[in-house]
Amino acid sequence: MIRLSSADTEAPDEAIETDERREAQLAEITELVGDAVVESHIDPGHELYLRIAVDQWKSVHRRLRDDLGYKFFEFLSVIDWMPSPYGKSEDATADAGVSVTTIDDPGEMEQGYAGGDSRFQLFTRLVDIFAGSQGVVIKADITDPRDTDEPQAQSLIEVFPGANWHEREAFEMFGVRFTGHPYLQHLYLPGAFEGNPLRKDYPLLARQVKPWPGIVDVEPMPEDDDSTDDDSTDDGAEGGDES
């Protein structure tokens, strides 16, 4: 076994990757929307991430579409960054009838690229299909939907009509409300369904009483018995002839 020191595993300064294309992209967007950009992050060779002020959510998307050519709306979603108080679903008990329990230390909350100041964040991704399909992920801090009766963000339907169902899903699964959405109703769940299943503090009872689908009990295959297989095949064939 070869033992490596910390010096052996540290990348030399000249190996630090840069991304001039996305640095120029960031400069262009920042010049356009100014103080609306709260924080940014470039993942070299992959993506540009922006965190913007939520009160400028709609205006930033409109300006990126109209002034910079980001005309393709890919998705809108929400992330609840709070670690689940119930632990990982794949670690849940599979014994029916066991009450739902919480764990003492679910871990620290981290908001990912471009940081954040809230448990919930709203996300979109826009693409300029005429500039080598260059994309940008945009996110904004939003209040906990249960802490306010006011909408958390402006609807993007007037800018990108395709955001309609995405916003309905965010409303249904997280409780996020959008100003100006004409039909903020359930998309998947029954109308009388209570709660928001993608919130981390929503107990998914089915995962507490049923095995996680990714866990498979591997059982040995029965031993091959050619004579038994032949007999069963012959019986089936004879039965078919009689009928």
Tags for this model:
26% helix; disordered N terminus; 5-stranded mixed sheet; 243 residues; 6 helices; alpha/beta
Mind sketching the topology for me?
Blueprint: H1 6-9, H2 20-33, E1 37-43, E2 47-52, H3 57-68, E3 72-80, E4 120-128, E5 134-142, E6 153-154, H4 163-174, E7 178-179, H5 205-209, H6 226-242
Parallel strand pairs: 2-5, 6-7
Antiparallel strand pairs: 1-2, 3-4, 4-5
Largest sheet properties: 5 strands, mixed
Structural class: alpha/beta
Give the terminus-to-terminus CA distance. Answer: 70 Å
Which strands sit side by side, in order, in the main sheet?
Answer: 1-2-5-4-3
- Determine the mean pLDDT: 80
Q: What ranges have pLDDT less than 50 throughout 5 or more consecutive residues? A: 1-15, 94-98, 227-243
Write down the Rg.
26 Å
User: What is the helix content?
Assistant: 25-40%
Let me know the number of strands: 7
Order of helices and strands: HHEEHEEEEHEHH
Can you offer a commentary on this structure?
It is a single chain. By secondary structure, the protein is α/β, with parallel strands linked by helices. The chain has six helices and seven strands. It has helices spanning 6-9, 20-33, 57-68, 163-174, 205-209, 226-242; strands at 37-43, 47-52, 72-80, 120-128, 134-142, 153-154, 178-179. The protein has a five-stranded mixed beta sheet with strand order 1-2-5-4-3. Strands 6-7 form a two-stranded parallel sheet. Strand 1 (37-43) and strand 2 (47-52) form a beta hairpin. The longest helix is centred in the last third of the chain and has 17 residues, at 226-242.
